[in-house]
Every structure is written in C-alpha cells, then in structure tokens.
Amino acid sequence: MQVIDFQETPVKKVRHQLLYLIYGDKDAYRHEAKFSILTALARGNPSTLPSIRILTDRPEDYQGWPVETLALSPQLLTEWQGNNGYIHRRKACAIAAGLTLAEKTLFVDTDTLFLADPELLFKQIQPGQYLMDSFEYNWDYVCEREDYRRLGACLGAHGVTRENSFKLYNSGLCGVTDRDASLLAEAIGLIDEWTEGGFDIHTIEQIAISFAMRNQTINKTNQHVYHYFAEKRFFHTMQAHFFAQHGEAFSAQLLERCHDVPRTRPFPSAWRRLKIKWKLRHQRGALHRIGRDLLYGSAAPEHPYYKLCRHHWWDSASREILRLDPQSRQQLFGQLEHWPQHLPEPSKAQDKSLIMAHLRKRIMVSG
C-alpha cells in the first residue's frame, strides 16, 4: 500500500482506476470497501486490472492491501461537504478530484460487489459516453411528490418541466474520463444551488450528476456489479463474519476465501417463492408482507453465511407488525407464544419457535 497526500504530492496518472471514498471509523463501511476490492481482484484479469485508489482519512486501515490510499484531511472533508451541510456533496467532489489521476475513472460505492471483470466496464467509458449504476426513474414520475416539489422549482429555473423530463440514475458507480471536469463542476454547482436553505431529499447528488449528463449516452453497470445499497443488513452480517474468521490482512488466502461468501442476500429459490406466494394468496397488504418475510427467512437456501443473516427477514416482519395500529396489532399478534393462526406455518417446523422468540424479543424491545 502506498499512502499519498494528494493535495501536496503529485500522483502518477494511470490509464484506468477504481476510485473509492471512505471516511470515518465504522467497521461495516471498512468491511464493505475491503470486500468490494476483493471481488474486483477476484474477477479481474491480472494483466488488465485497474489501479485501485482509496480516498480516505484512515489510510492505515489498508496497510498491506494492493491499493494506493490518497489521504484526506479533516479540513478537506469539511470543504467537500460545502456550506449547506449536504454530506453527499463529498462524493461528487471525490469524483472531480479523481479525474486528473487517470484517463478513465470508475467511482465505486463501497457497497458494491463485482460480478465480472472490471475491464468490461472500462471499455464502455468513452468521451461523451458514461457509466452509471442503474436507471431509477424519470423525473416526470416523481416531480409531483411532496418531497420533490422544492427541487422541482429549482429544475424549473433550468427549463425542466414534466413534459421534457430526464432520466435519473443511481450513482453507486460512476464512470467518467479525464475530459469531464466541466461536467463534475456543473454537478457540484447544481448541488450547491439545490441545497441552499436546506434540502428535502438525500439523493440530490445523483440527480445533479444525472442532470449534468442528460444529453449524453449513459450505460448501466448493473449487469457486471451488484450494488446492495437496499440490503446492507444482510451483507454487513456476512462480511463481519468473513473478516472475523479470516482477519483483515490482505493475502492470497483471503482473496481465495472471498469466493465462499454469497453475492446475493438469502433469497429463497424460485420454487420456494412460488409456494410461499400460493400459501399467502388470501392475505393482503401488511399481513401479506409479514407472512412473506417470516417464510422467506425460514426458506433461505442452506448455506453457512445465509444461516447467519436470515433473521433480517424476521426483523423486517417485526417492523411491519409494529407499524400496525394498536388494535390490529393486538388482534393479530397480541399473543406471540404460538404461531399466528392467520398465517401459514414455515416448512421447517423447528423454525416456528425460533421465529416467535425472535419476534417477541424485537417487539418487546421496540415498545
């Protein structure tokens, strides 16, 4: 590992780079970054692997890893956050800072798993042709929502209406070239404009980048990577176990062992999901969601790592129960000593008592 104070020391410009931003001392985010790097190395061809660079305030965390760490000072992190208190502005600033360090840059959120050789992604990055993680929605789909009204007024000042909508992309991955400084400068300017006086939504950064790219060709990366931003609880549990077992020091053995960890959450097979859907055919709304999550946790595939995190399905069910109005909750789940009569039982009989004990614990803790 090479540590570089890139504000003071010139950084060698490379052909391709994977660029990560991570700051703070949370174990889960460090595990995310390290496991993402392992998947990139495991899938990549050694002859075409990109440089891996980490913008971080804790370069010591990556000692011994095949990466370059670009040290961030507290002052720079504060500067990147800007005057409006919008923390995700730092991501746009990190991408902008990385442009001069490589001909092509693929910025990678730490909660990303590579499913294919990263070189396949770099081949798609060209001048005027960008990569974003995935398409999320068109502006005309959300522009009337209450939390988007203020942003809509800001976009209106730029001539954007419901009728001339643009596509919004998740920026979990963002592929750009060293010619795109003006694009990132525009995105950062839009972030500052749209967060002045406060903000209602946390995805302004990716909306600003999408808007700045609106007239360009954008390819999606989600065929080659898995961005698990909505499923972190499963992966945090699996990754914590992985590093507790094998340690965080980089080695060939650690790289080999990363193949043992699933690349998806513990999702039941298609056949089991179909059976669960049939069992719940008479349930609707919250009750259907509760039953589905209870049964999905029980029907998770047999795997040592899945066994550790299937309880997150049951946590989701407990949250749905707690959202019920008090009368419905008491009527449907007032007694958690036995399996609720209005829900089908799990196929694994031994899970019944385990699930009920889990629900009792979660619901009692919450209220």
Automatic annotation (TrEMBL):
* Protein name per the record: Uncharacterized protein
According to its UniProt entry, this protein's organism is Pseudomonas bijieensis
Q: Organism classification, top ranks?
A: Bacteria, Pseudomonadati, Pseudomonadota, Gammaproteobacteria, Pseudomonadales
